[in-house]
Amino acid sequence: MSAAEICQVLKEGELEKRSDNLLQFWKRKTCVLTTDSLNIYADTQKRTKGKELKLQSIKKVDCVERTGKFVYFTIVTTDNKEIDFRCSGEENCWNAVITMALIDYQNRKAIQDFKTRQDNESASPGQQERPQMPGGQR
After folding, report:
1. CA–CA dist 78, 109 (Å, integer)
2. Which of 4, 49, 74, 134 is least enclosed, having the fewest CB within 10 Å?
3. For 14-25, what is each residue's pLDDT tens digit?
4. Beta bridge partners of 24
5. Angle 82-9-69 (CA atoms, 0-180°, nearest 5)?
6. Which tens digit of pLDDT belongs to each residue from 12-62?
């Protein structure tokens, strides 16, 4: 994956994230989705103290529910942590864009892994022998 691919911004805007504390308030966050990660910032102006959620650490986008005003969804990480979000149902919703970015990332990784495996196999052709017949004959 080239540096240009990794830095490409797919979507930028506001999302609301449910806090992890006992009261579970919804907090407005500025988010930037790239081909490699979802960056979540508390400050809309400065974009400081951001959290980066790498696509490689996301297992799936789950529990999509639409109410009158909002679309609610959950991002499940590879360590089974659940992060709840909501966005306005009127705008292009984040859950679909995140899901498509995740699928694209997984496809690129699968192709890269396949090419690596192919390169490794072609670099060592002597390793693959024909199977022997019973009795030690070929």
Report:
1. 16
2. 134
3. 999 999 888 889
4. none
5. 50
6. 999 999 998 888 899 999 999 999 999 999 876 666 778 999 999 999 999
Round to whole Å and give the CA distance between 5 and 12: 16
Please, what sign has the CA dihedral across residues 119, 124, 128, 129? positive
Find the length of the chain: 138
Q: CB-based contacts of 80: which residues, under 8 Å, 6+ apart? A: 59
Tokens of 27: 């907090």
Sign of the CA dihedral with 39 first, then 44, 48, and 51 last: negative
Please, are residues 31 and 40 in contact by the beta-carbon 8 Å criterion?
yes
Hey, what domains does the chain have and what are their CATH numbers? 3-111 (2.30.29.30)
**pTM of the predicted model as reported, rounded to 2 decimal places:** 0.76
CA 100 to CA 123: how far, in whole Å?
34
